[in-house]
Amino acid sequence: MEIVPKKDLLKDRYGNYYMVSYASKKSLTIVNAAMYHAFNQILDEELVKKVKAKYPNDVACGKYFADLVHEQIEQMNNSNESGTIYDIEDVKKEYDLHMKPLYDDSFHL
Q1: Distance CA 109, CA 106 (A)
Q2: Buried-most residue among 15, 42, 83, 94 (CB within 10 A)?
Q3: How many helices (H) and strands (E) does the chain have?
Q4: Are 86 and 94 in contact (CB under 8 A)?
């Protein structure tokens, strides 16, 4: 199993998805996938335009980022080159996982 950072996703038994933000030989740093997308976009007019173009009505910010994960999953399911979704329990057998907490003061990806 070779996990590719910023491409592959991990899924837990509750249906949550995690992006691998960093990988070494036997260790992975993971973060909730919607939070990963949220922390990699600047809140500016361009983002507001993208959101307004996508949704006919006002939506919560989190909806947009959760939908980005859903679109990523759909793309991964329809293409062999878009990354792989791994079961987090299978990954734990081969890697040490370090999960970035959602409210970390130094939340850098």
Answers
A1: 9
A2: 83
A3: 4, 5
A4: no
